[in-house]
């Protein structure tokens, strides 16, 4: 997702950013290594930054030997807004930031170096796109037209080359990937899988945000860069490490989040052809008023937007937020959070009179799947269809299923019986995706992998014509099961009577 430039703002005109009720506290993450002589000044600037949000300053001393830690302790005793933590030995800037992330309790985080190169008075312009609901992350660009100290040509060129390479790999259009000023919503930052140790934090965070699908904005900032004589620590070898980090995050270690479900859904998003294959099999059963129960991040929802009414429901806060970002402006779409195991959460949809309930790869996560099927039956209009897609064949159960929180995989007979017990007539039942079952078995049983990667899904999508052909000839069980139940129309007549 490309970054978007924000028009230049006069900080003097923006000394007070209105506090959004969703964002009460700004966590300032400050790694420190031998910065004793600038430390008190930068702390004072941070704590006096002109914002209405509460400020939580987390200072992590990374094994300083110049008295920085003793000064940090004294300042923390003087001001309760300061949280102090020490690494006994120097571990690297990224390690210090990751420690600060673990300690933070705020709603938004900003990384702040302990030198005086970056000015906390510019927090208002950095926060505005997030507070306005336009962004998930904001980068402060040193090269977007604001005053800055003129320093090293080759250092600047290295920054621009790394930014260019990062943009090419991540499909972004940033002007300053290496900037210290990166502001990120806390709920996203805490779920990013960050592993770097040194100055490679900048390319790693940029890549992980891109892989997340975060809405990234850039705003211009001033920059008072230091010379090496004044204490600048980054060197040529760090540029080489940053280049390697870009390659590692994108191609060698693409798992960008600790949220397993979101990683899998993001991977499946890359298989658009596969998603269309599922819906093509089911199109004759869809009505015009569709409730997708357990919509996730909208991988299948995006293919259902032409229906007269599309209702999207999910339990996960983050998924609901993603759905609102993608589809919240459409008049024919309604989005709500809800728990499928609570019948009252499904009752809210009765007034919409859904003629189709579509639930793909959800009920295997639920212990009381029979209760959920009964709630679907009670919610759907008489004559409507309930379309269930689930993993097939318990013998294919692997560590992948464990990681995803699957209680079970289904046989055709088991799911048919449960849907009939809920009151549905069976309109259609079939297994599909035999090629996928081979890949699932190899990944989970033999290789013991716990995740599907985006690369796997891209290759499967490319092999989709082969997969469709093999459906007809492979004498093996398939990976997925579809069962379509119909709520008898006669029930409407009995209810009327």
TrEMBL record:
Residue ranges of domain Glycosyltransferase 2-like in the record: 27-192
Does the entry feature the keyword Metal-binding, yes or no? no
Q: For this protein, what is the EC number?
A: 2.4.1.54
Name of the top EC class for this enzyme = transferase
Coiled-coil-forming residues are none
In its UniProt record, a GO molecular function of this protein is: undecaprenyl-phosphate mannosyltransferase activity
Could you name the domain of life of the organism this protein comes from?
A: Bacteria
Keywords tagged on the record: Glycosyltransferase, Transferase
Name of the molecule in the record: Undecaprenyl-phosphate mannosyltransferase
UniProt organism field = Kolteria novifilia
């Amino acid at each position: 997702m490309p970054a978007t430039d924000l028009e230049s703002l006069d900080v003097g005109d923006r000394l007070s950013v209105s506090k959004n009720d969703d964002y009460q506290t700004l966590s300032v993450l400050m790694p420190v290594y031998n910065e004793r002589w600038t430390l008190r000044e930068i702390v004072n600037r941070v704590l006096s930054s002109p914002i209405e949000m509460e400020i939580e300053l987390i200072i992590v001393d990374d094994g300083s030997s110049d008295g920085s830690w003793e000064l940090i302790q004294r300042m923390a005793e003087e001001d309760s807004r300061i949280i102090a933590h020490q690494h006994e030995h120097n571990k690297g800037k990224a390690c210090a930031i990751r420690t600060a992330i673990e300690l933070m309790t705020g709603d938004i985080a900003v990384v702040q170096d302990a030198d005086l190169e970056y000015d906390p008075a510019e927090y208002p312009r950095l926060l505005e796109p997030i507070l306005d609901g336009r962004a998930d992350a904001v980068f402060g660009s040193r090269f977007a037209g604001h005053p800055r100290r003129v320093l090293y040509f080759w250092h600047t060129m290295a920054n621009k080359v790394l930014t260019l390479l990062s943009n090419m790999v991540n499909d972004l259009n940033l002007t300053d990937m290496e900037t210290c000023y990166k502001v990120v919503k806390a709920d996203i930052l805490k779920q990013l899988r960050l592993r770097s140790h040194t100055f490679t934090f900048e390319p790693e965070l940029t890549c992980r945000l891109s892989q997340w699908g975060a809405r990234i904005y850039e705003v211009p900032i001033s920059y008072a860069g230091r010379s090496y004589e004044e204490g600048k620590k980054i060197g040529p070898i760090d540029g080489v490490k940053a280049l390697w980090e870009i390659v590692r995050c994108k191609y060698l270690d693409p798992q960008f989040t600790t949220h397993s479900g979101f990683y899998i859904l993001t991977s499946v998003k890359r298989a658009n052809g596969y998603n269309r294959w599922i819906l093509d099999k089911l199109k004759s059963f869809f009505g015009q008023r569709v409730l997708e129960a357990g919509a996730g991040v909208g991988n299948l929802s995006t293919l259902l937007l032409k229906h007269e009414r599309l209702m999207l429901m999910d339990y996960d806060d983050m998924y609901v937020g993603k759905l609102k970002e993608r589809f919240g402006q459409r008049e024919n779409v309604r989005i709500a959070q809800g728990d499928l195991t609570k019948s009252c959460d499904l009752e809210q949809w009765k007034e919409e009179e859904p003629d189709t309930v579509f639930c793909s790869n959800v009920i295997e996560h639920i212990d009381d799947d029979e209760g959920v099927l009964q709630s679907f039956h009670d919610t759907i209009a008489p004559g409507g269809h309930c379309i269930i897609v689930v993993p097939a064949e318990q013998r294919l159960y692997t560590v992948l299923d464990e990681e995803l929180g699957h209680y079970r995989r289904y046989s055709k007979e088991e799911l048919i019986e449960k849907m009939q017990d809920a009151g549905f007539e069976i309109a259609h039942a079939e297994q599909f995706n035999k090629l996928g079952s081979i890949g699932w078995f190899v990944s989970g049983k033999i290789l013991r992998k716990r995740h599907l990667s985006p690369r796997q899904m891209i290759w499967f999508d490319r092999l989709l014509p082969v997969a469709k052909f093999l459906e007809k000839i492979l004498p093996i069980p398939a990976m997925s099961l579809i069962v379509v139940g119909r709520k008898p129309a006669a029930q409407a007549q009995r209810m009327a009577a």
